[in-house]
Amino acid sequence: MSTEQSQLIGKVIATEKAPTTIDSFGFWTKPDLILNPFDIVKVRHINGSWSYGVIEDISHLTDSASFLTDFISNDFGDLTVHAPTLRIGMNYVKANVILNDKNIYTPLCSNSEVYLASAAEIEKALGLDNVKNPLVCGYLEMYENTTGQEPVFLPVKLNSKFIIGPEGAHLNISGISGLAAKTSYAMFLLKAIQDIYNQKQDSEDENDDSAAFIFFNVKGCDLLSIDEANDFKDEENPGQERKKTEQIYEKLGLEPTPFNNVHYYIPHQSTHLPEKDLKTKIKADKAKEYVYTYEDVKDNLDLMFADIDDSAQTMDSIITHINSDDLKHIDNWKSILDYIKDKTLAGGRSGDREITVASWRKFYRLIRKNIYANQHIFKDSDVNGRFARLHEVLSEIKKNQIYVIDIAKLNEEMQSFVFGCAVRTICSFQLGEYEYDEDTEKDKPRKIIIFIDELNKYASKDAPKNSPLLRQILDIAERGRSLGIILFGAEQFRSAIHDRVTGNCSTHAYGRTNSIETAKNDYKAVPSVYKNIMTRLKQGEYIIQNPILRSMLHIKFPKPIYKQNKQ
Amino acid sequence: MFKGIMDFLQETCKGSSDFIPFRSYRTEKFSYDTSNSPRFKYDDDTDKKICGIIAETDSFPSSKPQYRDLTERAARTQENYDPAHPLFTYFLDGSRHVYKVDDIAFNGKIFPVTAGQIGVGCLKRINKFMQPQPHLLYHELVLVLPGNMYSRSFREEAVFSSLKNKLNEKLKTISKKLNYFISFADILLYRDTQGLTPEKIEDKAIAKIQDRMIELEKKLVRELVSESRLNQESYLIKDGPLEYKSMRSGDERFRELRKIENNYKYVLGISKSFNPESICDRKGKPIADFIAKLEPFHRTPAFLYENEDYCPGVSFAVWYLRLRQNGQTLSPFDGIIKIEKLLVKEEKENKKMDSERIDTISAYLLNERCPTCYGRDRRWANHLYPIFVTEEYIKSRYLSTDTFLRLF
Questions:
Q1: Which of B124, B234, B372 to mutate to test the interface with A (most CBs of A within 10 A)?
Q2: What CA–CA distance (Å, rounded) separates A197 from A382?
Q3: Which ipTM was obtained for this model?
């Protein structure tokens, strides 16, 4: 856009006390000009270059010398006074330099002209032009309500290699439940990713990328209808809302259709999904109930004790003993429980002198509690093959498939167990520990993207250090990029998540949160104005951070295109 | 190469038969505004007296002039206030910065050389916003020299005009470096220094700059009138008194106030500080406490002021108005403004101004008491905010003292 078409909005101020610097500058505008944090402006700089800045803060100044001046100017506190003259005032806008088109980063000169930027210029300034492997992450709207300027709508596309690997991987989404729409944002991103891979589906290029998805449903029936279209029945005007949402999807270059190739795995008799709906899904071959036999689980018993502080490693010893060759003959829950019970009797043989009876009793108590609390899921056999065995199902996952594993109604220990077993299976899968024939090998996805909400339950800063589940997640966070396991985690409070997990995420999405959270060290690098904005974000808005972006971006995303079953 | 204005003057005058060669002492340069120099204490600091003749149509008991309460009137005015028609639309202020730049000697005497920056400008209030009027801003640089340095008795104006042009030609290089156009508007001359002390001679030089400023103020008012901007719903408020002394030099058109009195039909002069001793009763006794005891939102009657010696042929209506509570200010005169209106046409004939008009003007002025410039100007209690803004605007156009003095 030429200068003639750009709107001139102000001039740079550089004073003795507030000079411009390489990184930042301030400029004045008229008080009635509406600008917003994250808006981009361009400034005429030396040698015919243009510098671009992102607005960080806006303050309003007048010539009032002190608070007392204003009080006195209202006739010493008379609320009925209406002054015939408005004070001389201006808005002072603070912005951070993000780009100069000729790489000239000397500070901007005083009195330099400041303009609004065009959509193309904004794209360039933010590094969103010429993005390789584009993946839509939302859209931004700029200059909303700015007089004399058309609002700018810009799809935000990031390099997918910096989100789902191999250059960068893992996404962390944080925000207050019910206000931040974390699941909706994650699902929007995942929808965009599935769209990309659907387009590549038929490619026979050996180097072609492929992915499969595993979602964990942790709330009600939230993710149990993602292959159905959203009916928008909660909206005031469903038809209008649908149309508006579809238009946004189209502008973003996404199919306004729900997920496809979805399979649901529901814990037997432990789900919020109404029986009628479950039967319908099973009949349509979209869903299956899953259970765990002893054979499935014996190698993963440690995951039942993930939250137990086992500093003396006694639980660990017992599990090792159970998995030893001596007990190879035990192949059902009843037998193992009887065996363990036997160990708890006073005077009984321990079988291992280092494990005390007290430890066996503790172990028995915990395992029995889990099994009896979830007895519908722990089966001794599945002779008719009616149920799904998750480790089998996951080890046969194909590209572009989406598996939704429901754990919403399970208790916390069981949720950790199911999640842990699934993750372990996926790791083994990606490590090539399972053998396949050639045809099956061809359908094996290069990447598996896991989405789990309430990540704080599994990767908390307070989790015991020797927790096998935490170790598993740390492994994914640190090595997953090369293994092809990508973790999309969401939680209410980012500060609760283990530093090594968040530290290894290449992309961060900050949703609405509170000031207690933003005051924590985890937000040290975030400018204070942005922290304040985080406390006011609306549903559908996020602030994202990614290596490709020159600064944090305030983005929006459309309403879900799939059906949500909100309780 | 240009080495400074004093060098230029010395070189030019040395080589010319028009001037008496002088020696420059290169004395210390300073600004009179920041040094201990005599300054006018009051806006109306002259030997004049307002005697208690009522100059308004309403009658007041002659033995005991009464105050008029405008509280209700001001409240009604505020209630019905329309920002699109504010009554006071234009605000004028003039100021000057005067500098001592050198002392020169010739004919066995020493004469000061002064220079000044003069700023006279006008802001317009549109829907509560103060807007500059670029073509109604005069910013001039002037140089003041002793008149008797010119050796001849004719063509004086042409010669000094030529000297000024040569100087400005030399200053073009400086302008380029500073990226700011510097040019002297005029070279003024002071005379009649026989028998005067150096301080008095300096005062004469300063007075020249003051006169120039006043001339520009009059010129600006004429400009507003010629553009038909002033009318009964669009007044100009001028900071300071309207009592301009008759001038013996300068533009002929503006020397006598009576010749341009019609320009002031819709102009008010508002003084922030005034000599309380200047108002007297009919017997000539000062009645300063009469003003000091003004109640808030009250005005005095309008008094007639005439001074044939100072500004012949013109009459003024002068009254005082208290804007604020006495207890909210430091001195008894804080919060009181002095308002002057030149009487023209029928008003002049009758030597009376319409009381209703005075009340209207006073009520509007009361509502101008907010906002204030408290914290920025110690005269905040009497300083109308639009005038303060106009002052600040004009000050912002000045070259800094350092920059200006370096020209010499």
A1: B372
A2: 35
A3: 0.80
